[in-house]
Design goal:
By secondary structure, the protein is mainly α. It has three domains: 1-50, Homeodomain-like (Arc Repressor Mutant, subunit A), CATH 1.10.10; 52-183, Tetracycline Repressor, domain 2, CATH 1.10.357; 192-258, no CATH class. The chain has eleven helices and no strands. Helix 8 crosses helix 9 (135-160). The radius of gyration is 31 Å and the shape is elongated. The termini are far apart.
Length: 258
């Protein structure tokens, strides 16, 4: 076992036995059988012993994204997320011990959140470049990057809690959901016709229809495409009063006024 791994195992054991706050760097070095200088040769603090090598992971993600082009950008993002998840899976129980420790110590949770922000920023910058320079693209890149990190963290937490049987399949499915959300363009709103909003009204339905028709006539009852601007029948918001027909049924009182 390497010195780095011995220091990690010693730190995790001591954190479990004594608690994070009560464990010192000297305690970890002594348990690992090395000196204080050796400890700092590998880690900057006892906090750094706990977390994975995020710098190495971020570099791996950057390299994977750099090999993509406009046609393969989505695949690159999905595979980069896989790289991060795989690094935790390869750690096995050590990753689960880290999760248990960070769940108990607020300062470590804050550090974990800060680490996640670094990944999100990297994905956001890549996605923004892929989508192109526009305000709408910048927003979509921000949202997609957040969704990418959230999807990864969701699957990772399920695995850490022993809820995910096949985390690789789950991350692939999660990324497919993210891609579907952000690669399908929203339909353009219709430009022709009339837009009518009907709110709660105490008048009779026939009176409301007449008021809508009058309002449309006041601004021109022809739609931009040449069609007739017909009013939309408002939904009834008051209880039926016996003589009022249900939708789709004829009115017992005769034809509606025009």
């Amino acid at each position: 076992m390497s010195v780095r791994d011995r220091l990690v195992d010693a730190a995790f054991d001591l954190f479990d036995e004594r608690g994070y706050e009560q464990t010192t760097v000297d305690d970890i070095a002594e348990r690992a059988g090395v000196g204080r200088t050796t400890f700092f040769r590998h880690y900057r603090s006892k906090e750094h012993v706990i977390f994975p090598d995020h710098d190495r992971l971020l570099e791996a993600i950057t390299n994977r994204l750099a090999t993509s082009n406009a046609d393969t950008a989505v695949v690159a993002v999905a595979e980069a997320v896989r790289l991060v998840l795989m690094s935790y899976l390869e750690e096995g129980e050590r990753a689960r011990r880290r999760y248990a420790i960070t769940s108990r110590v607020p300062a470590l949770r804050d550090r974990e959140i800060a680490s996640a922000a670094r990944y999100q920023r990297l994905f956001r910058e890549f996605i923004a470049e892929w989508m192109g320079p526009s305000p709408q693209a910048a927003l979509r890149a921000e949202l997609m990057a957040a969704a990418v990190v959230s999807a990864h963290n969701h699957v990772l937490r399920r695995w850490l809690r022993r809820e995910a049987i096949d985390p690789i399949r789950e991350i692939d499915a999660a990324m497919a959901e993210v891609v579907a959300l952000f690669t399908q363009r929203a339909p353009e709103p219709p430009t022709g016709g009339s837009l009518v909003f009907v709110l709660r009204d105490n008048r009779e339905p026939d009176q409301v229809v007449a008021a809508i028709r009058a309002a449309l006539n006041a601004t021109g009852d022809r739609a931009p495409d040449g069609g007739s601007a017909r009013p939309v029948e408002p939904s009834r918001s008051q209880p039926d009063r016996g003589r009022r027909a249900m939708p789709g049924q004829p009115r017992p009182s005769g034809r509606a006024r025009r």
